[in-house]
Fold this sequence. Notes:
Layout: H1 2-12, E1 21-25, H2 28-35, E2 45-48, E3 53-57, H3 59-62, H4 66-82, H5 93-104, H6 109-120, H7 138-159, H8 163-172, H9 177-185, H10 189-204, H11 216-229
Parallel strand pairs: 1-3
Antiparallel strand pairs: 2-3
Helix pairs in contact: 1-4, 4-5, 5-7, 6-7, 7-10, 8-9
Amino acid sequence: IINETKKLAYQFGEVKKTPFSIYITSNMEEFYEKSEGPVPEWGIAIAKNKPDKIIIKAPGIANISYSRLKTVIIHELNHIYIYRIPNHNTIPSWFKEGLAMHSSKEFSLLHKIEISNAQWGNKLLSLSQLNNFSHYSADMIKLAYGESAAAVESLEYYYGNSILNQILNFMRKDNDFNKALELSINEKFKDFEIKYENYLLNNYTWLFLLRSPKYIYIILPIILTLGYIY
């Protein structure tokens, strides 16, 4: 935990150093008691501020491995870090969760396939729909997290690896999130939104084929041919 907090400060800049707590709860009653409020049905962990604390279901009740537990802790530490950025309450869920997934390296192939399926089913969520997705059900949450990670990834793709730091630095100068984003990319938010939608189209459209083994014999020759041409 100490090492991960140092990594966050090194990567995104120093923030105010004050104590925070991490509770790994052994049963659901303790989890809800420590959470002190509503928790989404799909939630394994939650980060809260005032006071800053992380509450996590133990691996036994969350049905996760200890390796996954470490990933969840890194994800939630990112939220504690963000709580210490000025105007953090203006940050939409897609950026908060996308940044946390960026830090914890959670953006998996399964998330990308989920995006691909949503594209073909015309069920993609817009960035405005991802401003707050705590109300989404368990069957939609993987898509919401996946799109959020893709949005942060597309920021780096279009504007460079330092873009996340730039946004947070502009927020440190007392700008809200949207203003900090526009100052960082030197464009309007709508311009980024269009680029983001194109990024999804260009990178995830055909990944749904990987969900079923029966498509492997179809897609591999195509990939090899396109790779050769490229």
